[in-house]
Design brief:
Strand content: 35-45%
Largest sheet: 8 strands, antiparallel, barrel
Helix content: 10-25%
Order of helices and strands: HEEHEHHEEEHHEEEEEEEHHEEEEEE
Strand order of the largest sheet: 7-10-11-12-13-15-16-19
Structural class: alpha+beta
């Protein structure tokens, strides 16, 4: 107890000093409003652009940027019309005063057949003026343009250390006449629930003190809520971001990403092994689970790409002429390849791949062999014991192996997304093993050898193009 009390006091002082040094509380607050959509751009495209600008502006660390889902929730509680046809600057000023923030970024997005345009402005809420603006225009893919425009807008409007000191002159903006500011005398439950941080002394527009205004980001945005309501809000926000990033992924991977499955029939190129311990001299390929491989291909252009897949086989050792097995060799691991396709004969598309596999090799021993019995029949006659009668334990240790392979095939495009394919693959692979005996007087190495595990496969599969 004597140690606990001083420790608690020291921790409390350290936390309070850390809060006092918190740089976020010294930054002016900023929000990014929904962008207006024009031309062929829709509200979803404009919303994604605003989300990306908000994330990049927060990363610039010039402002304390309030997350957009909190902004939208606060404006909805204040019944603010975000789709009003009034002047965008006046609408942004009204929203900024409702949210009680220092700066607002707003703008518009438009696209046509051959051009994408985005414009954004930085509004100083205290001064009621637009202090900076930027416009970006280019042709090409809309998703690529959004990423470029978001970075350019965030860099120019939020990437400078003191945005309010811009020397450009803009006219003072009046708020929408129908907008009613929140009264300080209103009940606390009706105050907008928005994060409000105190700007640094260097900020030329210190905010007026208002009853109930928040001083620090360490304060709560609103009264404590039940955990179930908090969980619902977090789930809704996570779902919103997941949908946004999934849509961005689908846009970025369109025409680039293929994924599919291949079923195979595999055989070893060399089944005889005449140098291992003088007894095991053959191998028989077995099925290691479902004989299928998942793969994914990313195309850098219309012809060349990179492919990754998973490969596994299991080869059972055989002793002639008795025909019994000491165990099985298991090979599994990823393969990576450079792949190319030729599109001029569509819907028939020939393709080829060349690559390597990085495999983990192990030995699944039979218990009778591991415990030193003469044969499986001898072990069974002794009641299948789980110990060694001689005190010696046999083991076979394999090193990891690297294989090389070539694959050629042809694909038939059923429609724009689905294709069926047939291919043949040849793999060159060998694995090095070390046979040891763990005896009471120590571990002894009996033999070291290489196992030929080269194989050929026929593969039939299906692929989906995103």
């Amino acid at each position: 107890m004597k140690i606990l009390i001083p420790t608690t006091i020291v921790l409390a002082l350290a936390i309070s000093r850390a809060d006092a040094r918190d740089p976020i509380s010294k930054r002016p607050t900023c929000v990014v409003l929904n962008f207006d959509a024009g031309g062929e751009a829709d509200a979803g495209d404009a919303g994604m652009l605003a989300n990306m600008i908000s994330v990049k502006a927060a990363g610039a660390r010039t402002f304390s940027v309030i997350p957009r889902y909190k902004v939208n929730r606060a404006l909805a509680k204040a019944r603010f019309n975000t789709t009003s046809r009034s002047d965008p600057a006046a609408r942004a000023l009204t929203a900024g005063r409702i949210l009680n923030v220092d700066f607002v970024i707003f703008g518009s997005l438009s696209k046509s057949i051959d051009k994408n345009e985005a414009s954004a402005m930085l509004l100083d809420v205290r001064a009621g003026k637009v202090i900076d603006r930027v416009a970006v225009a280019t042709s090409g893919d809309p998703a690529t343009f959004r990423a470029k425009a978001a970075g350019e807008i965030a860099r120019k409007l939020a990437g400078q250390s003191t945005p309010a000191t811009s020397t450009r002159a803009f006219a003072r903006i009046e708020p929408e006449p129908e907008a009613k500011p929140v009264s300080p005398a209103a009940p606390a439950s009706r105050q907008p629930v928005v994060h409000r941080s105190t700007p640094s002394r260097a900020t030329p527009y210190p905010p007026p003190e208002q009853p109930g205004s928040l001083k620090s980001p360490n304060q709560a945005f609103e009264p404590i809520k039940p955990w179930s309501e908090y969980l619902r809000e977090k789930t809704a926000a996570t779902s919103q971001y997941a949908k946004y990033y999934w849509k961005e992924f689908r846009t970025a991977s369109e025409g680039r990403l293929d994924a599919g499955i291949r079923y195979r029939k595999t055989s070893l190129k060399k089944e005889r092994k005449n140098s291992f311990l003088g007894t095991i001299n053959a191998m028989d390929l077995e099925s290691a689970g479902i004989p299928a491989e998942l793969f994914a291909t990313w195309y850098f252009n219309d012809y060349i790409g990179a492919e990754a897949s998973w490969f596994n086989i299991r080869a059972r050792t055989i002793t002639d002429p008795e025909g019994f097995s000491d165990g099985a060799i298991r090979v599994s691991g990823p393969t990576f390849a450079v792949t190319g396709k030729y599109m001029d004969y569509a819907p028939w598309v020939p393709f080829a791949s060349a690559g390597i596999g990085m495999f983990s090799v192990s030995f699944d021993h039979e218990d009778w062999w591991r415990y030193g019995y003469e044969s499986a029949a001898h072990w069974e006659s002794e009641g299948r014991p789980s110990y060694s009668v001689t005190g010696k334990i046999r083991d076979l240790d394999f090193e990891d192996a690297v294989g090389k392979f070539l694959l050629v095939g042809i694909c038939y495009q059923v429609d724009e997304q689905w294709s069926a394919e047939l291919s043949i693959r040849s793999m060159w692979l060998s694995a090095k093993s070390q046979y040891t005996i763990d005896a009471p007087d120590g571990v002894r190495i009996r033999d070291t050898t290489n196992w030929p595990l080269g194989n050929s496969s026929w593969l039939v599969g299906a692929r989906y193009s995103f």
